[in-house]
Amino acid sequence: MTDTADAARAVARLDWLRRQLGADIPPPQRASVDAGFRSYWRVLAPGGSRILMDAPPGLEDVRPWLRLRDLLEGGGVRVPKVLAGDVAAGFLLLEDLGPDTYLQALDAGDADALFTAAIGQLLRLQAIAPPADLPAYDAALLERELRLFDDWFCARHLGLVLAADERATLDAAYGVLIAAALAQPQVLVHRDFMPRNLMPAVDGPAVLDFQDAVRGPLAYDVLSLFKDAFLSWPQARIDAWWQQYHARAAAAGLPVPAPARFRRDLDLIGVQRHLKVLGIFARLHHRDGKPKYLADAPRFLDYLQAVLPAYPEMAGLDALLRTRVCPAWAATGPGA
Question: CB atoms < 10 A from the CB of 33, how many?
Fold first, then answer.
């Protein structure tokens, strides 16, 4: 949005809030932003603070968020309560769950308890039958996401021109990753079930940012929770957490495969997600003027280098990463 559009939006935001909460409330203060066009504002009002979700029409549509919120709540998932809304204007007034997400709350001492609670919410989410018209995490979507790595991270950010045999290597690796994802049991998938999208709550954690949910691979959200964009954990702790998830999911009747197969599912869907995220971070930097995300690219390169050597079918991608991508990143870094 332009400065003029931002100013006009601020006026509309305050006007709408005062119609809901009273003419004497002060202007809202920025609470958070995300990688899209939504923004969140804390409103001090009689009876306590509230959160305004501002989704500018033409840039964001609140209807998918509302639809998924109702679906999740109906399945017992803790989601933000909606207090008022104007869909056409792109304003939703929500309960205030506090300033900190799991990202701020997690530390080595309390991680086990917080992740145990998060697994409970994920099991509720995965037990919800995906609506028939919900998009599928199909081969086309999986490949589009993977190609973000080629187009935005390798080509646009690193300036790599891949030879024909290198492109063939990527194609072969992508084929393995897509086939592995499609072979998994298919459930409701949040697509960004990570600490930054979980809020501590007495009956929670509360789940945020669920509007892009799809029907897709069972292991996707599990992997996202334990290998996320902003926190890294020792592999031994990750193993204990996914094993806890596996036991609880099996007890809940979810279609989890045997542990060895599930570990492979986690690793390979992780490779798909890590490649996608590297592409998204580069796109946010170059297209959207949001450079901060690329500072976490090394975390995803590390994730990839830790997993790929264990899978012979990923040897070509592993070699390409070691000989071309990582050296280019070392020379370029986040600021290109």
Answer: 12
**Mean pLDDT, the chain, integer:** 94
3-state secondary structure of 21: helix
- CA 115, CA 200: separation in Å to the nearest integer? 11
The domain containing residue 44 runs over which residues?
Answer: 3-95
Does residue 265 sit in the same domain as residue 324? Answer: yes
201 lies in the same domain as 267 = yes
3-state secondary structure 25-57: CCCCEEEEECCCCCEEEEEEECCEEEEEEECCC
Is the pTM here over 0.85, yes or no? yes
CA atoms within 13 A on the CB side of 34: 16
**Taking a C-beta distance cutoff of 8 angstroms, is the pair 232, 195 a contact?**
no
Mean pLDDT of 124-133: 97
137 and 162, same domain (yes or no):
yes
Give yes or no: residues 185 and 314 share one domain.
yes
Nearest to 91 by CA among 139, 26, 41, 46: 41
For 178-237, the pLDDT digits (tens) are 999 999 999 999 999 999 999 999 888 999 999 999 999 999 999 999 998 888 999 999
Beta bridge partner(s), residue 39: 33, 54
Hey, is 91 helix, strand or coil? strand
User: What are the E-state strand segments in the chain?
Assistant: 29-33, 39-45, 48-54, 82-86, 91-95, 186-189, 198-199, 206-207, 214-217
